Amino acid sequence: MDFGRLLTAMVTPFDDNLDVDYGRLDALIEHLIGSGTTTLVVSGTTGESPTLTHDEKIALFKHVVEKAAGRVKVVAGTSSNDTRASVELSQEAEAAGVDGLLLVVPYYNKPSQEGMYQHFKAIADGVKIPCILYNIPGRTGVNMTSETTLRLAEIDNIVATKESSGDFNQISEIVAASPAGFKVYSGDDYLTLPMLAVGAYGIVSVASHVVGDEMSQMIGAFVEGRVEEAAVLHAKLLPVFQGLFLATNPTLVKAMLNQNGVEVGGVRLPLVEAAPELIEEVGKRLNKIKG
């Protein structure tokens, strides 16, 4: 299954009471589909998965599948640091009709490489749909090595990895030695073009909430061989890519959506709203691109 090149790690819209707001969710889905997103990733870190309940996650999966109606793919974030619970949630997500799963490296309990392998194998064995690995050592506290990723890539329904290690030796090793059809996605917006240059396929993006059209243009230019044009677009977008992470994600991307007429509400504790001066700064950077 091809999830396309621009996957969006979708924020979860909340109402004024910080309950999931399905009206706002519908509007966000239309906004993302209209600006180049090829797959919606539901209940990832950007979707504030740590503060979503189990029932909220299942309801979100079902709703997004229904609303997307086959126009784009839907991927559910279902992995945690509890393997048994991850398998159960993954099976429920599959039953809800999602097209694939995003599986983050277990966090906090710092598993060994063998523990990571067995965790992901257990989830993949428990479902029939495609699985995308997700390595983000800055949040999980551990790095999944290229050797472990390549070992997991041999499992039939593990079809891709989202690499947020920033380690180009590791990324290049995975690209060079992975089986035919296995795809590598950047997990960092600012590394989209550099990772494409070493053989990655696309990006699981945060910035696509607000610069999706421009990111589609950049990726398209690179894929079509217009490398200088892609580099110019990368340089233009870089201040926004960097700005959105001046505070803990997704506080600033939610603020930018709200400012630009796509209401998504606030963030749940323990996250808090970004400082006004940061919101103003990122707004200025975004306006330079949109102006």
List the topology elements.
Blueprint: E1 6-9, H1 22-34, E2 39-42, H2 54-68, E3 73-77, H3 83-95, E4 100-104, H4 113-126, E5 131-135, H5 137-140, H6 146-152, E6 158-163, H7 168-177, E7 183-186, H8 192-197, E8 202-205, H9 208-223, H10 227-243, H11 251-259, H12 276-290
Parallel strand pairs: 1-2, 1-8, 2-3, 3-4, 4-5, 5-6, 6-7, 7-8
Helix pairs in contact: 1-2, 3-4, 4-6, 6-7, 9-10, 10-12, 11-12
What does this structure look like?
The chain is of the alpha/beta class and 291 residues long. It has a single domain, classed as TIM Barrel. The chain contains twelve helices and eight strands.
Pick out its properties.
eight-stranded parallel barrel, alpha/beta, 291 residues, TIM Barrel, 8 strands, globular, 12 helices
Summary?
By secondary structure, the protein is α/β, with parallel strands linked by helices. Helix content is 48%, strand content 13%.
